[in-house]
Amino acid sequence: MNAVASTLDISALRDQFPILATEINGHPLTYLDSAATTQKPDAVIDAISDYYRHDNANVHRAAHTLADRATSAFEGARKKVAAFVGSENEKQLVWTRGTTEAINLVAYAWGGRVLQEGDQILVSTLEHHSNIVPWQLVAARCGAEVVPIRITDAGEIDLEELRRLLKGPARMVAVGHVSNALGTVNPVREIAKLAHEAGALVLFDGAQATAHQVVDVRELGCDFYAFSGHKMYGPTGIGALWGREELLAEMPPWQGGGEMIDEVSFDGSTFQQIPYRFEAGTPDIAGAVGLGAAVDFLNGLDRDAIAAHENDILQYAIERGDDFDGLTRYGCASQVSGAFSFVLNGLPSADVGMLLDQQGIALRTGHHCTQPLMSRFEISGTVRASFALYNTREEVDRLFTGLAKVRTMLS
Ligand code: PLP
């Protein structure tokens, strides 16, 4: 184990994730798919179970004790999650099902109101489909255009190209904070500055960032920030949109129903203040509580030491990959986080993944919901190992032992 890991006691941390003790196909589980979803610590599993055992009721409505308890657990979680991303207050934190829904919310509620014929939304070629398709859907309705920002061979956003595009009619620059497919960490502060100088707004897709680095939305200078609970040790089905207060306040609702209204009559309806205006229907209360517990879990750790540990694991994988015959790595940005993406001897990534799975190694293969990026590199997909705080160098060694076997079997 490396020096950073030994001060962190990764082994004790791993013990908090019960699933990591599982055997898969007769082998200890080697979980290298945290960019798809992270595993959950006891603290999160227990918080959800305790909520259902002791506090479950619907929120905001009934005047009874359990409903009060559920409401304070739910709103308490909102406060924690808002503070976790550096929000000034919890009004700016809208619960969503995850990053995808958060981006759709902005596309429909902001874009639907503001975008006009000829306007442009700039997205990078690195983007996950969830930061492309919502914009395409909204653009098609209002005659706007989604324009890709080129990336370099290293997998970095070409800032010269962005500068050039920003001379045109761009209203929004929507880019990932960290790429799920290549691990590229984008220069988000600079992107925000360039966009604002050109009069455009900025949305960052933080799905792959919040687990790995301290995020402060105000310091990043963005207008919107979207993220998912399940990628930061929380449950699936919950995530959030953070938005600048004045922008959220001007945005109309995008879904109608209970909870989001002020008054309803057949003459028309009026709507709640932010954030409730964007939260129609019964929310994922237990999910919010679970995400609050994930934030407590992360806040209880030395985040700098975790980042150093994760970086050590990633750099170790890169080093081993560089020495491994037939392995071509994709994404060689100057700053990378979390993901190690490669093709082995030109073999179909699904075959490699299946043979690794037989050895208990779980990772993701295919296009990673980034088809334009795969087209850019003229490949159909990659094998992606992705890391979280519980991974070890020994697991990276297991990956390469597994890959050596795969290479022999398939050659
Ligand atoms: N953006 C990025 C960069 C992602 O990695 C993902 C999921 O893999 C998403 C968006 C979508 O997240 P979710 O499915 O949680 O909405």
Task: Give me a quick take on this structure.
The protein has 411 residues and is α/β, with parallel strands linked by helices.
What does this structure look like?
α5 runs parallel beside α6 and α12 (303-322) runs parallel beside α15. The protein is globular. It contains 15 helices and 17 strands. It folds into two domains: 5-31 and 302-410, Alpha-Beta Complex (Aspartate Aminotransferase, domain 1), CATH 3.90.1150; 46-299, Type I PLP-dependent aspartate aminotransferase-like (Major domain) (Aspartate Aminotransferase, domain 2, 3-Layer(aba) Sandwich). β7, α8 and β8 (201-205) form a beta-alpha-beta unit. The longest helix has 20 residues, at 65-84. The model has no long low-confidence stretch (mean pLDDT 96). The strands form five sheets. A seven-stranded mixed sheet has the order 4-10-9-8-7-5-6, with helices on both faces. With 411 residues, it is α/β, with parallel strands linked by helices. The structure holds pyridoxal-5'-phosphate. Pyridoxal-5'-phosphate (PLP) is lined by residues 35, 98-100, 128, 130-131, 176, 180, 205, 207-208, 228, 239.
